[in-house]
């Protein structure tokens, strides 16, 4: 299949991008890695009248650590995130999550901003960003605004982005000392989208007590499991604790059924993955405490 005809724009600065998006209105889409948008256009499931290509906008392509915070430009390739030593040492959850995205060819082209803005169910990066309490900087012609990762995705492939706005940058705070993280997922084959997944960040104090915990599950949109987080706070890690926390995590969540898995399967798989991710994150937190 070939896409419906469209007008192509190739700006080189962010201000040109926002001016174009403002002028072209709702029929314009930005093009990042093209790994999701181009197939959708080829199947004519998306028919944007205008494409605004971000690939020549150098100011959107960066990865840096400033004041202990990780800053990721929207068009940073997923593979850059995966291979960064700063990310591996400071934000290992991002590296682990990114390794589950498709195949290396996809990650070579696919961008961090594209994955977040596309908001496909079960996508790894939105779930990891909620767990890490990231902030997203959105830019339009009228200015910028910052939203918490948790508030960004509204539902399947739907975000708070307004027409004329793009995701410009992601800011990820550094996990506290004594933290450990884990990303677990299950898919039919290596490289397939996850049927279910869980991301965890826990912090232990010197006595081995959980002082902070975040757990997010895959779903139509990332699902923050607050009841499970509350269950582990102030406790010492144990198998029984994590079993109970995982049970609470899925107690009232909604999952979709499709040709790949039933909703019931997804709920049960999320429960098992949450338990394993909690245990693994706690082990890693304890190792980090012991080392530091
Ligand atoms: C075979 C295959 C397997 C895959 N497996 C996985 C997987 O397991 N997990 C996973 O998470 N993903 C998977 N993907 C999707 C992949 O991660 C895509 O790269 C990603 O979803 C979109 O990123 P992109 O840069 O390619 O965006 P594009 O395809 O260019 O754009 C996607 C959408 O986001 C919008 N957009 C892009 N950038 C911005 C921005 N900065 N601001 C606002 N809107 C923006 C576009 O307008 C478009 O609507 C897979 C893709 C393929 C082809």
Provide the succession of SSEs: EHEHEEEHHHHHHEEHEEEEEEEHHH
Which structural class is indicated by helix and strand composition?
A: alpha+beta
Helix tally equals 12
Q: Identify the overall geometry.
A: globular
Ligands, ions, cofactors: flavin-adenine dinucleotide
Order the strands across the largest sheet as they lie in space: 4-5-10-6-7
The total tally of domains equals 3
Uncertain segments are none
The CATH topology of the largest domain is given as Uridine Diphospho-n-acetylenolpyruvylglucosamine Reductase, domain 3
**Helix proportion range:** 25-40%
What do the pLDDT scores average to?
A: 97
CATH C-level class of the largest domain: Alpha Beta
Strand content: 15-25%
CATH architecture of the largest domain: 2-Layer Sandwich
Global Rg: 19 Å
Q: How many beta-strand elements?
A: 14
Give a quick account of the main beta sheet: strands, pairing sense, barrel closure: 5 strands, antiparallel
């Amino acid at each position: 299949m070939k896409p419906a005809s469209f007008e192509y724009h190739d700006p080189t600065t962010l201000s040109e991008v926002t001016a174009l998006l403002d002028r072209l209105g709702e029929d314009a889409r930005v093009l990042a890695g093209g790994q999701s948008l181009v197939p959708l256009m080829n199947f004519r499931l998306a028919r944007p009248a205008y494409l605004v290509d971000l690939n020549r906008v150098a100011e959107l392509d960066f990865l840096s650590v400033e004041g202990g915070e990780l800053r990721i430009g929207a068009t940073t390739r997923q593979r850059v995130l995966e291979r960064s030593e700063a990310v591996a040492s400071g934000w290992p959850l991002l590296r682990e999550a990114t390794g589950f995205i498709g195949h290396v060819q996809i990650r070579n082209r696919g961008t961090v901003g594209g994955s977040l803005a596309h908001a496909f169910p079960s996508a790894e990066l939105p779930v990891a960003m909620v767990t890490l309490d990231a902030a997203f900087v959105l830019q339009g012609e009228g200015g910028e605004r910052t939203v918490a990762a948790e508030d960004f995705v509204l539902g399947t492939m739907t975000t708070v982005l307004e027409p004329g706005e793009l995701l410009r940058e992601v800011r990820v705070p550094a996990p506290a000392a004594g933290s450990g993280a884990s990303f677990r997922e299950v898919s039919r084959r290596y490289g397939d989208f996850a049927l279910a997944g869980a991301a965890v960040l826990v912090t232990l104090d010197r006595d081995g007590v959980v002082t902070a915990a975040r757990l997010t599950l895959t779903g139509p949109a990332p699902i923050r499991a607050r009841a499970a987080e509350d269950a582990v706070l102030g406790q010492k890690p144990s198998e029984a604790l994590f079993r109970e926390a995982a049970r609470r995590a899925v107690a009232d969540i909604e999952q979709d059924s499709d040709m790949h898995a039933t909703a019931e399967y997804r709920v049960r798989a999320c429960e098992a993955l949450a338990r394993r991710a909690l245990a693994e994150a706690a082990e890693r937190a304890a190792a980090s405490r012991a080392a530091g």
